[in-house]
Amino acid sequence: xxxxxxxxxxxxxxxxxxxxxxxxxxxxxxxxxxxxxxxxxxxxxxxxxxxxxxxxxxxxxxxxxxxxxxxxxxxxxxxxxxxxxxxxxxxxxxxxxxxxxxxxxxxxxxxxxxxxxxxxxxxxxxxxxxxxxxxxxxxxxxxxxxxxxxxxxxxxxxxxxxxxxxxxxxxxxxxxxxxxxxxxxxxxxxxxxxxxxxxxxxxxxxxxxxxxxxxxxxxxxxxxxxxxxxxxxxxxxxxxxxxxxxxxxxxxxxxxxxxxxxxxxxxxxxxxxxxxxxxxxxxxxxxxxxxxxx
Length: 294
What we know:
The chain has 294 residues and is α/β, with parallel strands linked by helices. The radius of gyration is 18 Å and the shape is globular. α6 runs parallel beside α7 and α8 packs parallel to α9. The chain is built from 12 helices and 8 strands.
C-alpha cells in the first residue's frame, strides 16, 4: 500500500517538470499556507495582497483553497467562473480574473458556476490541472506580484503553489495543534532542492514572548530535521475591526488603513517585499473589468 508520505514524495519529484524557468518579466509569487484551518490564512493573504498594491505593485490574488473559496467573500466578489473551472479546462485565465475594489485583481477559487445543480462540479478534476494552471500564471507578464492562498491541505494544487513560490508564508496561531500541523505541512512540502525563502506569520496573538516561542519552535524543528532556515515575517493580533472588515467584504487595509492591525499587515508586507526585491511596473487604473460586489 502506498502511504501518504510516499505519495507526497512522488509529487515532490514530479512537481518541477514543465514549469517555466523564472525570467526577467515573471511575477514574483508569494504563497501562504497553514497546517490547519481557522488560523486566518485567507484573511492574511487578502490583506497582504492589498498592502502590496498600496505600495505600488501590480498584484494578482489567487485562491487555491478549493475546499472553501473564501477569498471571494473577503473581497466582496461574486465570481461565476473561478480556479475550479480553469483546472477542469472550462474557461480561460484572463476571463476568470476579476478586479476587486482597491485595485487588486482576483482569481477566485469557487464560482457560482460550481453549484450542486451543476453536475460537472461533481466530476473529478484532471490530475494535470494544477500544473497547467501555475504554468499559465508564471507566463503572465501583467503583474509584479502574485499572492496565492494555498489553504491548509497538502495536495497537488497546494504543492504546485509551493513549487512556484519565490517566498512562502506559513501562517500559524499559538496553540499547539496549529504549531505542530504547520511544521508537518512544511515537512510535506519541502524538497531537498528547495532554496526558496520560508517564514512564519504568527496570527491572532499579541504577547511578544509567545510569538517568539511559536516561531522558534517551528524554526528549530525545520532547521534540525529538514535543514531549512525559517525566517520570521511578523505577527498579527486578534482585532475586532479585522472581523468587522471581513464581514463587510472589505480588507482591513482598505476599511481602516490607520488602524494598528492594518499597520501590522503593512509592516509584514514590507518585510516580505524586502526579501523579494521585486521591481515595480506601471500600475494601470484597472487591468480587467470590475466585478460587482456581493
